[in-house]
Amino acid sequence: MAAQSHPTRTLHVAFLLFGVGLLAVVAIFVLAALGHTAPWLWAVSMAFPTGLALALVHVIRRR
Questions:
Q1: How far is 20 from 59, CA to CA, in rounded Å?
Q2: How buried is 29 (Cβ within 10 angstroms: 0-12 exposed, 13-18 middle, 19+ buried)?
Q3: pLDDT tens digits for range 4-62
Q4: How far apart are CA 47 and CA 12, in angstroms?
């Protein structure tokens, strides 16, 4: 069976979660440097490892 040449919906969702999580981590550091806090950003930052894990699952399932 030939491998797909275009990304699937799973990979798009993984990239979206990874990007949102990465932005949240950056925002946490920027706010900390400014002396502010936003506790809800810690929950949003969990999208970072979730997106990474989903991308890894996608890659493993394609093989």
A1: 20
A2: exposed
A3: 567 789 999 999 999 999 999 999 999 999 999 999 999 999 999 999 999 999 999 98
A4: 13
In this prediction, residue 63 has a pLDDT band, given cuts at 50, 70 and 90, of confident
Q: How far is CA 58 from CA 5, 27, 31, 49, in A?
A: 13, 28, 33, 14
Cα angle at 7 between 24 and 17, to 5 degrees?
15
55 to each of 19, 30, 38, how far by Cα in Å? 12, 27, 28
